[in-house]
Each structure stands twice: as structure tokens, then as C-alpha cells.
Amino acid sequence: MLQYLQQLWETSSLSPHGICLLWRPELIWTHVGADALIGIAYYSIPVALAYFVSHRNDIAFGWVFWAFALFILACGTTHFFSIWTLWVPDYGTEALIKAVTAALSVVTAIGLWPLLPKALAIPSIDALQRVNAELKQQIDERNAALAALQAEKVERLKTEDMLRQAQKMEAVGQLTGGIAHDFNNLLTIVAGNLERLEVRFRDDPAAHRSIKSALEGASRGAALTQKLLAFSRRQPLTTKRLDANALIDGMSGLLPRAIGENIAIDLRLGSGLWPIEVDPNQLENALINLAVNARDAMPDGGRLSIESRNCIDPLLGESETLKGHFALLTVSDNGFGMTPDVLSHAFEPFFTTKPVGEGSGLGLSQVYGFVTQSNGRIEIVSEPDRGTSVRIYLPRAPAETEQTAAGATISLAAAAAGQIG
User: Fold this and answer.
1) CA distance 137 to 144
2) Whole-prediction pTM value?
3) What is the domain count for the chain?
4) 22 with 169, same domain?
């Protein structure tokens, strides 16, 4: 082995490579320039590969890059040594360098071929972009589903709150109606006896004054029971077909006297408003009640707006029947507004935020009872310091031909019942 190495490095019997080129300068320097540039490039490529792999720990098969770097580095060394052997016949060392290069190239090739299936299995940039786009779409769909679920949850909680409020108002209404009915019967007995006493003691001034005061108290109690019966939807209503716009327009002279001159009144009456079938006196009382409440919310003056327009329930849409068709009356102010806690109790009888002696707490409850008894619905939208809007939805009245047909049907049924009886 030692003798083999000695023979490998023995150069005395060899000639430099330049002699094969007859030492022609153009050939010599062309080889030198070409091999120098190739060697420099071969030396720079491994540096770039090493820098890339060392800064990307996520690269798959990183050892292949290092193997390529060593192989290319060895190839560069052979080119530099080709320049050396132009003048120095050191072919043994050149052979050893080529042997190392060959070994590195063989190892790299052997390791590379088994990796090809795995390398081909790695997704391309386009495939990754498609997968990312699909993932983003799925995320967007999930977020949309979560948003819809959250909206449905909020809507469900709102519906549950409305149901609880309706059940509470129904229970309070039944209790209130029962008490008011019994109390009204008692007042009737009291008032009847007081009227008899008034006739009997007409010649006694002192007794007459006392009986008169008692009758006035009974009358006020009767008026109170009427308000409670209105809330409990047990008051008698005299309904008629009417144009709400005409009724509101007819109140334009009454409203300023009811709320004062320091409050501007803005009427926005929509054209073509559907007719409704309600008790006109009760509707007028309801609007005056709302106007007075708005006045109390604007002690320093402000603006009262009464708006009317047609409204269709979006859950029912344009059905063939008139179910879901409403005339919407909105009474708005820019006063104090209500907090959520006050808003949740606004329709309850005897609930008031006014000082003791300045309000009975029956105004809104009376409006609530009238609207509900008229098969409508009422809602309040209010924010503190932003004002309040009360929306009254009253069902659209059927066409007069339908009313006539319904009346004829009832008459025929009554006649038939009379004949049978």
C-alpha cells in the first residue's frame, strides 16, 4: 500500500499537462479561465446550499442538500487542480481528489434514487395553495355557521324573553281583570246605595255633601276599574272600519293643547294606508296617552313624531289572506329614553318612574290592553338619552265585500238557528 502511494505521487517521469497544449498561451489561459470560473461557482453553490438548509429546519431530506454540497465542493476542487496540473504533473493527488469526488457522487446517487417516490409525494406549491384555499373556505363556512348559530341563539333567547314577558303579562292581566271585575261589581252596589241615600237625604246639606263626595270617589274607582279592564282586555269595544290617517290628522288641533307649545309635532302619514277596524275612541285615547308620556320625557321641550305606514310581517309575507298585514303607527320622541330594566316593566299596571302622586302607571298598560284586544301588537324601542319609539301594529281590515259576505253568512246562520229553535 505504501509503495502504491509512493508510485502515485511520483512525478519525475511525468510531464505537466501544459506540454500537451504545446504551451500555446491561448489554449493555456482559456483552460485556466474556464476551470477557475467553474471552480469558483462550484465553491459558492455549497455555501448557498449550506446557508439555505441551516436556516430551514422544516426542509424534508436535508441530508441530501449536504451531500450535494460536498459533492459539488469536490467537483470544484478537481477544476482548481486541473489548473495546477497544467504546470505541475501532480496527477496522483488529482487522481485521489477525483476518487473522493467519485465516492461522494456515488453515495449521493445511491441515496437520491430511493428518495424520489417520497420527494414526488411531497405536495407541490399549487397543490398546497389549493389545499389552503379549500381549508380557508372550510374555515369561512365554519365561521359563517358559528355566526349563524350565535345569531340563532340570540334570536332564541330574545324569543324566550318575549314569551316569558307575554306569559307574565297574561298572568298579570288575568289577575288584574278578575280583581277589577269583582271590584267593579262592589262599586256598583256601593254607588247604587249612595244614589238612594242621596235622594233620601236631599234636604240635609251636610249629609248630601258627604254622600256626593262618596259618589265622586266611587266614580273615580269605576274609572280605575275601566283602565284595569282595558289592560286585561275585558273592556267593551265599539269597533268600526276607519282610516287611521284621518283620525290622526283630526287630532292635530288637540295634541298641542295636551302636550304644550314647547314640543314640536311632526306628522308623517304614509299615503295609501290600509284601513283598520278598531274602536276609534280607544285609539284616540291610546295616542293621547303616548303623546303625554312623550311630553313627560321632554320637560325642556323637544319633538314628537307620529308616523304611519303599511307593514307586512316578514314571516308571513304576501299571503293570499290579510293575515300579517298591519297598519303601523309609530309615536317617537327625543326625550330621556328608558333603561333596559325600565323597558322590561313598561307595560305593567301601576309601574311608573314618576314621583309619587304624579302618575298612576296605567297609561301604557291601558294602551297595551287596547292594542292586544284589537288583535294587534305593540313594542317599544328605547335607549337612554336617545329617545323612545312606540310601535303599534293594528291588523288590516278586510275588504268591505268580505265584511258584507261575512255579515250575510252570520244572518243566514242566525235565521236558520231561529227556524230550528
Assistant:
1) 10
2) 0.49
3) 3
4) no
